[in-house]
């Protein structure tokens, strides 16, 4: 009876370790994906950039873009992408995304303040009293990466359950 109780306690502890380890994850890279069809009238622009964390300070990325990142503007050469969190535009702070091209200077896209440090899909807006801002959609996403220690804890827990079940089946036979 004492052996069965000991095995049951070990099994419950192992299951608890599995549950606790399942929620552990490392900080994952953050991807900013932007697209618009409103660049100075009719040009299509798309941007996909990855950063280690959410953007909370002025940030710029210039051509040539890092591997895996991209910026394309139909008929133009994309030279730089700039992120300005909490930029004062007209009536208040906005998060501003600016895309520069070699041929025509560039274009700006305003988002409500706090957009760059949030996950989700956001639409560019035109600040009140300001003209010339274009529309577009920005998606900010991240995929969690399992933490090595959490994964090891999960595997140890699974092995512990297997050993406990095997012992129970041997004592029953």
Describe this structure in words.
The protein is α+β, with helices and mostly antiparallel strands. It has two domains: 2-25 and 146-172; 29-143. Helix content is 27%, strand content 41%. It has two helices and eleven strands, in the order αβββββββββββα. It has a five-stranded antiparallel sheet with strand order 5-3-2-10-9, with no helix packed on it. β2 and β3 form a beta hairpin. The chain is elongated, with a radius of gyration of 26 Å.
Strand order of the largest sheet: 5-3-2-10-9
How much of the polypeptide forms β-strand, as a percent range?
35-45%
Task: Provide the residue-averaged pLDDT.
Answer: 79
How many structurally independent domains?
A: 2
CA gyration radius, whole angstroms: 26 Å
**What is the element string, with H for helices and E for strands?**
HEEEEEEEEEEEH
Structural class: alpha+beta
Assembly type: single chain
Query: Largest sheet at a glance?
Result: 5 strands, antiparallel
User: What best-fitting shape do the alpha-carbon axes yield?
Assistant: elongated
Name the poorly predicted regions: 15-25
Number of helices: 2
Query: What is the distance, rounded to the nearest whole angstrom, between the alpha carbons of the first and last residues?
Result: 15 Å
């Amino acid at each position: 009876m004492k052996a069965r109780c000991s095995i049951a306690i070990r099994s419950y502890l192992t299951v608890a370790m599995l549950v606790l380890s399942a929620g552990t994850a490392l900080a994952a890279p953050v991807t900013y994906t932007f697209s618009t069809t409103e660049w100075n009238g009719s040009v299509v622009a798309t941007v996909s950039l990855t950063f280690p964390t959410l953007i909370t300070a002025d940030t710029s990325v210039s051509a040539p873009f890092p591997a895996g990142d991209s910026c394309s503007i139909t008929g133009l050469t994309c030279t730089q992408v700039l992120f300005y969190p909490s930029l004062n535009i007209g009536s208040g702070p906005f998060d501003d995304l600016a895309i520069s091209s070699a041929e025509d200077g560039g274009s700006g896209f305003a988002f409500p303040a706090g957009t760059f440090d949030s996950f989700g899909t956001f639409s560019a807006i035109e600040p009140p009293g300001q003209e010339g801002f274009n529309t577009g959609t920005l998606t900010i996403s991240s995929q969690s990466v399992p933490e090595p220690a959490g994964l090891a804890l999960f595997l140890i827990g699974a092995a512990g359950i297997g050993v406990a079940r095997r012992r129970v089946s041997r004592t029953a036979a």
